[in-house]
Amino acid sequence: ETMAVPLVFVSHSEMTFVAGHALTSSPRVVAIKGVPSVAETAALAAAGRSAR
């Protein structure tokens, strides 16, 4: 089955740029990836400037 949604790739630098807008944070993820939440910061970065 095929879903009609685009696949969006987000770079680590894009995630770092929006990391301050993340509402959730994991100390382990910060230590390993340098952002508070991989899923949330990736979603914020992919959503664009008006994301919240």
TrEMBL record:
<protein>
    <recommendedName>
        <fullName>CobE/GbiG C-terminal domain-containing protein</fullName>
    </recommendedName>
</protein>
<dbReference type="InterPro" id="IPR036518">
    <property type="entry name" value="CobE/GbiG_C_sf"/>
</dbReference>
<dbReference type="Pfam" id="PF01890">
    <property type="entry name" value="CbiG_C"/>
</dbReference>
<dbReference type="InterPro" id="IPR002750">
    <property type="entry name" value="CobE/GbiG_C"/>
</dbReference>
<feature type="domain" description="CobE/GbiG C-terminal">
    <location>
        <begin position="2"/>
        <end position="49"/>
    </location>
</feature>
<dbReference type="GO" id="GO:0009236">
    <property type="term" value="P:cobalamin biosynthetic process"/>
</dbReference>
